[in-house]
Design a protein that fits this description.
Aminopeptidase, eight-stranded mixed sheet, alpha+beta, binds coenzyme A
């Protein structure tokens, strides 16, 4: 579904330690080096580790196209003092719902960065006219990701059985935890 005219994703979102900004093609090199090749990082994602820079270049090109088309909005995550991609946060609109996804380079894990980014994105999202629900699914074994959503104030709704294929774990669809944050008032 296309972006409702009522809201537009910001080109940049600032948090205390991070900036989330619209990607540009030059980010591919940093993303390839920082995490796209890392099997630990992509373990519970829907894609396989990249072996060639060209794969990451194509991924970033898709991110730019998807943003233009209003299909999915992906921000690269950079630290405030250096404009180098260390992760990504994405929002996929579907009417009044936005589905959230995120990834961070392993060397930056467990510093609270992704919780900080997710909180900023969810707060922004639920302030947009027509947006009532932000949600995310995580593999039942992906404890770090579930913890990020819990710390961000999202509520566990249940298990979506056989919801998503995570090819680095198994060819068969995996059970996933479903979390959401919703707008309380009309
Ligand atoms: C999930 C991910 C984004 C978390 O980013 P992060 O910046 O390290 O997250 P935070 O530091 O904000 O919080 C991580 C929390 O998980 C906890 N954690 C980390 N590894 C854990 C594990 N194996 N088991 C249980 N908890 C774990 C940390 O202790 C921390 O919780 P705490 O603050 O209560 O101690 C990062 O691990 C990542 O990129 N993983 C690979 C990609 C991915 O799985 N994306 C999500 C797909 S749904």
């Amino acid at each position: 579904m296309r972006t409702p005219a009522a809201w537009k994703p910001p080109e940049r979102l600032h948090t205390e330690r991070l900036v989330l900004r619209r990607p540009h093609p030059e980010d591919a090199q940093a993303i390839f080096e920082a995490y796209a090749q890392d099997p630990e990082v992509v373990r519970y994602l829907t894609w396989r580790p990249h072996h060639h820079l060209e794969e990451t270049v194509a991924m970033v090109a898709r991110a730019l196209e998807d943003w233009e088309a209003g299909r999915t909005f992906r921000w690269v995550v950079v630290r405030r003092r250096e404009d180098r991609a260390i992760g990504m946060v994405e929002l996929r609109p579907d009417g009044h719902r936005l589905e959230l996804g995120y990834v961070l380079a392993r060397r930056y894990w467990n510093r609270g960065y992704m919780t900080e980014a997710v909180q900023a994105v969810v707060t922004w999202a639920l302030e947009q006219p027509g947006i009532y629900r932000v949600w995310a699914v995580v593999d039942v074994e992906n404890r770090a990701s579930a913890r990020v959503l819990e710390k961000s104030g999202m509520r566990l709704e249940g298990v979506l059985r056989r919801w998503s294929v995570h090819p680095n774990v198994s060819r068969a669809p995996r059970d996933c935890l479903c979390y959401s944050a919703v707008r309380v008032e009309d």
